[in-house]
Specification:
Strand content: 15-25%
Structural class: alpha+beta
Strand order of the largest sheet: 9-11-12-14-13
CATH architecture of the largest domain: 2-Layer Sandwich
CATH superfamily of the largest domain: Histidine kinase-like ATPase, C-terminal domain
Radius of gyration: 56 Å
Low-confidence stretches: 515-527
Helix content: 40-55%
Number of domains: 2
CATH class of the largest domain: Alpha Beta
Order of helices and strands: HEEEHEHEEHEHHHEHEEHEEHEE
CATH topology of the largest domain: Heat Shock Protein 90
Distance between the termini: 55 Å
Length: 527
């Protein structure tokens, strides 16, 4: 998942959460407003009903002409009177007026209400559970009670307030033991809230719709801006980083954006690349100098030993020359000594040429050569150190391959010297060469003291050595490792303490020397 998608998802989630919180708060506020309105409406209705009941009570009830829909009240005394003309009137007390008004209100869907009591005269006025709980609280001094009930038709606001006995009420209720100020019962008012719930639902749907389109619009705007200001510029910078250092790593940034944070980062990247290039050049120069110094150190070790080897034949050659000078007329002596002199001098010439070749400093250059012959020359150079060591050369590369001659010489001599130094009391040194399908394998195995397992991973580190001071620089194997890598090869070591060490060098088996130099190296001067 790329950065743009993550950013859009994060912003969208924040907006959705914000709108969700807004929707919740708005819905809660609307519900509170509706409940407050319903409560206020119920209080006003309660006062109106109380006033109506008071008016009916003050006038000792109402008398209505008896018709088919106007029946007499069996719970009232003197509930029927008859006029002189025969018209029959039925009496309506406050309770009946309240009930009939409630029926009219219920037909309109506005609300409905009724009288209830814990001691009803009419069983129809018996309280339900909510009304019973309200009446119990009124006995404890609570002034009003309201709650919301869920019904199949929707939510209903229940408002219940007490009915107090007044003086005009005693004409009917004195016989029930009530006195002025007593709670006769309660007026229970029910106001349906389904209309309000529909309004709240519609408002919530509108808010959700606005939230959806807002998130969509913000997401599109942010996608465009983020891609323009951030994502595409970071992508350019990322491509430049991938291209560095082999390809063009210049970053083209919008001119009007170069002063922002990413613009400064792009500028800093260019400066960093410049510093890295300079540091790499300095490092290459230092490494080349270190490699050359290590080669000179190895050459010094070789020269010290070979000098002794050359002195012996030189002494014999001088004796031959002196004898020939003393007997200038002895043709037979001259004929016998001249081949010996030539052989000895050519031997010295060969050794010195090898030393000069090994000490030469040159850039890493590939040419097609006989690798087995190079290995033989290297061990001829090391021959003077093989006094108690049996050398076995099992060389099976019949063809010539592209390799850097000087690098290979330095690798073989460095590893060969390490192997010889690991066998101070003599032993076996085996060198084998083989070719696989695409690789050249060179193995150098000794029967020496081996390498401690705790330091095997460190032997290729620069300046790491277990030799005494003056016996090694700690760069031989590090140089060999670096040279093998530069030739696109690999070098591995396996060793067991007391059982010897095996170095395995793997190089590309190529015979097409298209690339003449593995790296730019123009400043190669002798130190």
């Amino acid at each position: 998942m790329n950065l743009t998608i993550k950013f859009i998802i994060a912003i969208s989630a924040i907006i959705f959460l914000s709108y969700g919180f807004l929707l919740y708060q708005t819905s809660h506020l609307q519900n509170e407003l509706v409940m407050g309105q319903a409560r206020q409406q119920a209080r006003i209705l309660y006062k109106q009903i109380i006033l109506t009941r008071q008016w009916v009570s003050d006038h000792q009830g109402l008398f209505l002409v008896k018709t088919a829909g106007v029946l007499e009240n069996p719970y009232l005394h003197d509930s029927v009177i008859r006029a002189d003309d025969g018209t029959v009137f039925v009496k309506r007390n406050p309770a009946m007026v309240t009930r009939e008004l409630s029926e009219y209100a219920a037909q309109t869907g506005f609300c409905w209400f009724r009288i209830t009591s814990l001691k009803p005269v009419n069983p129809v006025n018996s309280p339900d559970e909510i009304e019973r709980a309200a009446l119990a609280q009124f006995e404890q001094g609570v002034a009003e009670f309201d709650t919301v009930s869920d019904t199949p038709e929707g939510r209903v606001h229940r408002y219940i307030a007490p009915l107090m006995v007044q003086e005009s009420c005693l004409s009917c209720h004195a016989e029930h033991g009530y006195k002025i100020g007593d709670i006769r019962g309660a007026l229970s008012i029910s106001v349906p809230l389904s209309w309000a719930d529909k309004v709240i639902l519609k408002n919530n749907a509108t808010i959700f719709k606005y939230a959806f389109f807002s998130v969509l619009a913000v997401a599109l705007a942010l996608t465009f801006l983020f891609n323009k200001l951030v994502a595409r510029r970071i992508a350019r910078l990322s491509r430049a980083m991938d291209n560095y250092p082999d390809q063009n790593y210049d970053v083209i940034d919008d001119k009007h954006l170069v002063s922002d944070e990413i613009g400064r980062l792009i500028s800093d990247f260019g400066d960093l690349c410049t510093r890295l290039d300079q540091a790499q050049k300095n490092l290459d120069k230092t490494m080349q100098q270190a490699f050359y110094n290590e080669k000179m150190a190895s050459l010094g070790q070789l020269t010290a030993g070979i000098a002794h080897e050359i002195n012996n034949p030189l002494g014999g050659l001088l004796n031959c020359v002196k004898t020939m000078q003393e007997e200038p007329e002895n043709v037979e002596l001259h004929a016998r000594y001249m081949p010996l002199l030539e052989k000895g001098l050519r031997r010295i010439e060969h050794i010195m040429r090898q030393l000069l070749n090994f000490g030469r400093k040159a850039p890493l250059t590939f040419s097609k050569v006989d690798i087995d012959e190079i290995i033989r020359e290297c061990f001829e150079l090391l021959e003077y150190k093989l006094k108690n060591i049996y050398l076995k050369l099992d060389l099976a590369l019949k063809d010539s391959y592209c390799i850097d001659i000087e690098a290979l010489r330095q690798i073989i001599v460095n590893i060969g010297l390490n192997a010889i130094q690991a066998m101070p009391d003599g032993g076996n040194l085996t060198v084998t060469t083989r070719r696989t399908s695409t690789r050249l394998i060179i193995k150098i195995q000794d029967s020496g003291t081996g390498i401690d397992p705790t330091i095997v991973d460190k032997i290729f580190d620069p300046f790491f050595t277990t030799k005494d001071v003056g016996e090694g620089t700690g760069l031989g194997l590090a140089v060999s490792y670096s040279l093998v890598n530069q030739m696109n090869g690999s070098i591995e070591v396996s060793s067991q303490a007391g059982q010897g060490t095996l170095f395995t060098i793997s190089l590309p088996a190529t015979q097409d020397c298209v690339i003449h130099s593995s790296r730019e190296n123009t400043n190669h001067t002798e130190p």
